Amino acid sequence: MVARAWCWALRRAGLRRGASRHLPAWGSAAFSSRSPSSSTKDGFLKEKRAEIMSRGLPKQKPIEGVKQVLVFASGKGGVGKSSTAVNIALALAANDSTKAVGLLDADVYGPSIPKMMNLKGNPELSPKNLMRPLKNYGIACMSMGFLVEETAPVVWRGLMVMSAIEKLLRQVDWGQLDYLVIDMPPGTGDVQLSVSQNIPVTGAVIVSTPQDIALLDARKGAEMFRKVHVPVLGLVQNMSVFQCPKCKHETHIFGADGVRDLAETLGLDVLGDIPLHVNVRETCDAGQPIVVSQPQSDMAKAYLRIATEIVTRLPTPPA
């Protein structure tokens, strides 16, 4: 059954849940260049984009109650960005218990925060018709995964995704947060631009493995944030080394020091290294991130150090 909050959110966004059923299937005649319906829809989207562009860049407006926004990005998927964002959010709270931390899953197509944070259900609505984040381990979380069924694909065009992101940013009752960590989707597309242009982002963290193919896209991600005037706080080298649990031999499966070389090229800092370890994957899959489930482990300590490095690079928050 569709939750009341989901119906409300889609009505406000102008996105009915059945909208995806009106999209033609890939490879069908509807996608032919001679199809009237396709050309009509494409013409509408072009007109809408032109209308938006004619207004110029949107004016940035802070999220009510949020002091500082940190975005975690990677040009390429599969480099451990979401597990890094989750564990860093928990590390920020663990390093300073006086700080309130929130976590926003901005990956509309493939939300992973609900599983990693062991959260299910639909957000309740406040008296002001704002969605209340779900909470676990002391972290307030919001994700599209709370609004759709776990196995349901989101088949939306770019403008619909941007509208959904706007609702997740503006129509959520975050309360009072010192840090809002945003887990960005891979790439440098609509979501990244929508977030960076609509809200003041305090800083971006780029996550990458040392692999050459991942570094190519990590560089694009860093350059994109520079173009939209978002400070890049530094890079995180994930899966930096694998240590055999039996003989303790270390192997650089994805290469060695690739992120450090990229950081030097870009004039940025490396915030820290996270080793490749099965416990990081297993704890995230189980909804018990390693920072809270194994706080004394070397991997948890790596996240805690990176969180400290991030905070030292942040400007003084507004009073």
What does this structure look like?
This protein is 38% helix and 17% strand. It is built from 11 helices and 9 strands. Strands 1, 2, 3, 4, 5, 6, 7, 8 and 9 form a 9-stranded mixed β-sheet that branches. Residues 13-35 have low confidence and may be disordered.
What is the secondary structure topology, with strand pairs?
Blueprint: H1 4-13, H2 36-54, E1 66-73, H3 81-95, E2 101-105, H4 113-116, E3 134-136, E4 139-143, H5 158-170, E5 177-183, H6 190-198, E6 203-208, H7 212-227, E7 232-243, E8 250-251, H8 258-266, E9 270-276, H9 278-285, H10 290-293, H11 298-312
Parallel strand pairs: 1-5, 1-6, 2-4, 2-5, 6-7, 7-9
Antiparallel strand pairs: 3-4, 7-8
Helix pairs in contact: 1-5, 3-11, 5-6, 7-8
The gist of it:
The chain has 319 residues and is an alpha/beta fold. It is 38% helix and 17% strand.
Structural class: alpha/beta
Strand content: 15-25%
What is the number of E strands?
9
Order of helices and strands: HHEHEHEEHEHEHEEHEHHH
Total helices: the number is 11
Q: Main beta sheet: strand number and arrangement? A: 9 strands, mixed
N- to C-terminal distance: 43 Å
The low-confidence parts are: 13-35
Question: How would you state the average pLDDT, rounded?
Answer: 83
Tell the overall outline: globular
CA-atom Rg in angstroms = 20 Å
In helices, the fraction of residues equals 25-40%
Key features of this structure:
nine-stranded mixed sheet; 319 residues; alpha/beta
